[in-house]
TrEMBL record, chain A:
The 20S proteasome core is composed of 14 alpha and 14 beta subunits that assemble into four stacked heptameric rings, resulting in a barrel-shaped structure. The two inner rings, each composed of seven catalytic beta subunits, are sandwiched by two outer rings, each composed of seven alpha subunits. The catalytic chamber with the active sites is on the inside of the barrel. Has a gated structure, the ends of the cylinder being occluded by the N-termini of the alpha-subunits. Is capped by the proteasome-associated ATPase, ARC. Component of the proteasome core, a large protease complex with broad specificity involved in protein degradation. Transmembrane segments: none annotated. It is found in: Cytoplasm. It comes from Streptomyces ferrugineus. Pathway: Protein degradation; proteasomal Pup-dependent pathway. One of its GO terms (molecular function) is threonine-type endopeptidase activity. This is Proteasome subunit alpha. PROSITE patterns: PROTEASOME_ALPHA_2. The formation of the proteasomal ATPase ARC-20S proteasome complex, likely via the docking of the C-termini of ARC into the intersubunit pockets in the alpha-rings, may trigger opening of the gate for substrate entry. Interconversion between the open-gate and close-gate conformations leads to a dynamic regulation of the 20S proteasome proteolysis activity. GO terms for cellular component: cytoplasm; proteasome core complex, alpha-subunit complex.
TrEMBL record, chain B:
CDD domains: proteasome_protease_HslV. The gene is prcB. One of its GO terms (biological process) is proteasomal protein catabolic process. It comes from Streptomyces ferrugineus. It is found in: Cytoplasm. The active site is at 54 (nucleophile). It comes from the Bacteria. This is Proteasome subunit beta. GO terms for molecular function: threonine-type endopeptidase activity. Belongs to the peptidase T1B family. Residues 1-53 form a propeptide.
Length: 256, 281
């Protein structure tokens, strides 16, 4: 009869958190920003078919960084939860807050149960409101905690660096093109302070657009529309840069 | 891990189990009692009295399809409701109109809409129009038990086939038998009269405006001869629901548009009660 090694609960949790964080850090980061007409999701994703962002329900979108099979599983669970709830009660009774709670419980239970491997995922659940004040963005780290975010949020390995960058520059009431441009700038920053180029075909972009006439507000932005927006965002930043100084991008880099 | 969706706890295991992209399949495994087809009916004598919806008509035109329905629900010889809606969008490119037991029909539409949306969200792609039509077949078949007790639901399904770039119409019988209709179709108690009207008015080269007028003409004729079908109610401003599906997606005509069509038809019928006449040869 061998005695199992004693591991303190603190140590066990720290190890699990470390394990999950490392898994999440292997993937690319993604950002979620509020803009004047809704919420935009931007991430680097070479795949056209395996999405990081998707629709959960009428006004609710989902974004995830980390291990694909794990967040895909959670995404489908969320779609089932939302559809069943809407079918049982009413479409208005499906809320991002409710969904975020269910995800938090799910992730939390898995994280603290020794029998299960912690999920290597970090999620964002966002709901677009009638007005920008009604927008809700929840960030759900791997351990099942839940953070109510405003303005902008980044998840993934490089999240801290990117969210610092976004916090300084994100403003309420940005146009979609401006928000998109800011998101791409934030994502292209490397931890060593350099910039890299993310070509448009490697970008995955989706919006929850409150101005859409349909009740389903989620929409992917692809192809020509994405190209146009990226160009418009570039032009707007250049026009602004005559006032703010050309160095808006460089100054960001030199702060690190 | 109790399968209790009403609690705010973690997602039940069934939710995280990989499986079908169908909401109905998920429901039949997880909460079968919520599916209309799984409901047990007590044995009853005779026909159960419940409001019935009546006439739905559809016609294709180059570039799309029009689906329309009257607004009357009847229970025996009583008008149960004057402004019932029997035509609904199923998704962005299709619509379903339902004749038969109103309560069950509305529930079936709700589940059908959800089924299509659920598939789309899970798979990231839409079902083909054929796939949607087949799914509806399955749902009607699951209602067969109730149909035998007089609670039948008979839909008409119309949509724009994005692959073939044309409007298509599918009609059903109570057993779920599905058939594609060419040009025009009707279902419900007034359908015999509506179909007669459409047969004489239909052409291959109708414009969208002509097609919408055609279906309202057909509904007028159905209401003229079938007491369970309601005509345009000018006094109460209740007009038929007319929907158009083209490559731009589903669109329901506003009250002003459908009232204009209905009123112009009424005006002509004051002079010519039997409506437009087709050439003899």
């Amino acid at each position: 009869m061998s005695t199992p090694f004693y591991v303190s609960p603190q140590q066990a949790m720290a190890d699990r958190a470390e394990y999950a964080r490392k898994g999440i850090a292997r993937g690319r980061s993604l950002v979620v920003l509020q803009y004047a007409d809704g919420i935009v999701f931007v991430g680097e994703n070479p795949s056209r078919a395996l999405h990081k962002f998707s629709e959960i329900y009428d006004r609710i979108g989902f974004a995830a960084a980390g291990k694909y099979n794990e967040y895909e599983n959670l995404r489908i669970g969320g779609v089932r939860y939302a559809d069943l709830r809407g079918y049982t009660y009413d479409r208005d009774d499906v809320t991002a807050r409710g969904l975020a709670n269910v995800y938090a419980q799910t992730l939390g239970t898995i994280f603290s149960s020794a029998a299960e491997k912690p999920y290597e995922v970090e999620l964002v659940v966002a709901e677009v409101g009638e007005t920008p004040e009604g927008d809700q963005i929840y960030r759900l780290p791997h351990d099942g905690s839940i953070v109510d975010e405003h303005g902008s949020v980044a998840v993934g390995g490089n999240a801290e660096l990117i969210s610092n960058y976004l916090d300084q520059r994100h403003q309420d009431g940005m146009s979609l093109a401006e928000a998109l441009k800011l998101a791409v700038q934030a994502l292209s920053r490397e931890s060593n302070g350099t910039q890299r180029e993310i070509p448009a075909e490697r970008l995955e972009v989706a919006v929850l657009d409150r101005t859409r006439p349909q009740s389903r507000k989620f929409k992917r932005i692809v192809g020509r529309q994405l190209g146009r927006l990226l160009e418009a965002g570039g032009a707007a930043t250049e026009a602004e840069s005559s006032e703010n100084g050309e160095d808006s991008e460089e100054s960001g880099a030199s702060e690190e | 891990m109790e399968a209790n969706t009403r609690s705010t706890g973690r997602l039940p295991a069934a939710f995280l189990t990989p499986g079908s992209s169908s909401f109905m399949d998920f429901l039949s495994e997880h909460q079968p009692e919520m599916l209309p087809g799984k409901r047990q009916l007590p044995p009853t004598q005779g026909v159960i009295e419940a409001p019935h919806g009546t006439t739905i008509v559809a016609t294709t035109f180059p570039g799309g399809v029009v689906l329309a329905g009257d607004r009357r629900a009847t229970m025996g010889n009583v008008i149960a409701q004057r402004d019932i809606e029997k035509v609904f969008p199923a998704d962005e490119y299709s619509a379903v109109g339902i004749a038969g037991t109103a309560g069950l029909a509305v529930e079936m539409v709700k589940l059908f809409q959800l089924e299509l949306e659920h598939f789309e969200k899970v798979e990231g792609a839409q079902l083909s129009l054929e796939g949607k039509a087949n799914r509806l077949s399955t749902m009607i078949r699951s209602n067969l038990g109730m149909a035998m007790q007089g609670l039948a639901v008979v839909p008409l399904f119309a949509g724009f086939d994005v692959d073939r770039e044309k409007g298509r119409i599918f009609s059903y019988d109570v057993t779920g038998g599905r058939s594609e209709e060419q040009g025009f179709a009707a279902t419900g108690s007034g359908s015999i009269f509506a179909r007669g009207a459409m047969k004489k008015l239909f052409r291959d080269d109708l414009t969208e405006a002509e097609a919408t007028t055609l279906v309202v003409q057909a509904l007028y004729d159905a209401a003229d001869d079938d007491s369970a079908t309601g005509g345009p109610d000018v006094a109460r401003r209740i007009y038929p629901i007319v929907t158009v599906i083209t490559e731009d997606g589903f669109r329901r005509l506003g009250d002003d548009e459908s009232s204009e069509i209905a009123r112009s038809i009424l005006e002509r019928r004051l002079e010519q009660p039997d409506g437009p006449r087709a050439a003899l040869l």
